[in-house]
């Protein structure tokens, strides 16, 4: 279970670094609003635990980023809007970041970059020279390289978020996502991610895809 006090400290440190020491609105209220979003009842995987995990992975990947503070802000917002039955969550999350960070005193150029990074999580396919995009996407996808039991828990949580989707439709949609990921030349774009996560993630994805392709397979 995520340590909410640690997340609050992380948010405060990140926002203060992003905006400097000028007189701006209380930073803590923005963090509380985000944590409330990440704790909504429709979430089973996209929870504060996922947020904490992504931020932890960013600690491992920080040296590959051009602007670690901006990447951390993007992590806070990348699933801030999450409704499983909607397809525009990333876009709505990016727009939330634009509104909230501008109001909180973050400069326009950094706000625009945060929003760009949030939108990038639609495809997880950053350009060759996009260091910050590569770091954020690797941190977000690191769950794919989990040990078997943790990966099974991840897939079960994803299925729980889509409980309203019939089994056959879920298998079809989930399989399409898995194939899209497996078709990427590389899942992970940082040297750390490629070295430590690529092989395990592909093994997990292929195993899940094989399970979903079997008519009698469980829907998770």
Largest sheet: none
Uncertain segments of ≥5 residues (pLDDT<50)?
A: none
The total number of structural domains is 2
How large is the radius of gyration? 17 Å
* Total number of strands: 0
Q: Count the helices. How many?
A: 11
Beta-strand percent range: under 5%
SSE string: HHHHHHHHHHH
Overall mean pLDDT: 94
* Sheet/helix structural class: mainly alpha
Report on this model:
The chain is mostly helical and 220 residues long. It has 2 domains: 4-130, no CATH class; 144-212, no CATH class. The protein has helices spanning 4-19, 27-38, 48-61, 68-77, 89-104, 108-120, 131-141, 148-161, 167-183, 191-196, 198-212. Helix 3 packs across helix 7 (131-141) and helix 5 packs antiparallel against helix 6 (108-120). The protein is globular, with a radius of gyration of 17 Å. It starts with a helix and ends in an 8-residue tail after the last helix. The mean pLDDT is 94.
